[in-house]
Design a protein that fits this description.
Length: 88
């Protein structure tokens, strides 16, 4: 498992695709989204939430429906490498 960690606005999401390509990472988890090959396959973006509390909950997969959706998507895959992006 790989991680990009840093303050909001430092370019983690921007750099994620290049890091994933360089290291053969198959899946990116970023701000409530599960992304494979540049395509969102599950989740919803915390960046689209109106309030900070709801954005944090979305980014952390705190919604039971979002968790179920993510688990279904992940259960169908056999992954060797995952990149998780976290913000402080």
């Amino acid at each position: 498992m790989y991680a990009l960690v840093g303050r909001s606005g430092t370019g983690k999401s921007y750099q994620a695709r290049a890091v994933a390509q360089r290291h053969g990472i198959e899946l990116i988890i970023d701000d409530g989204l599960i992304i494979r090959d540049g395509t969102i396959i599950a989740g919803r973006s915390a960046k689209r939430e109106k309030g900070i509390i709801s954005a944090v909950r979305t980014a952390l997969f705190a919604n039971p429906d979002q968790v179920a959706d993510a688990r279904r998507a992940l259960a169908e895959m056999r992954l060797r490498r995952v990149l998780v992006i976290g913000t402080s």
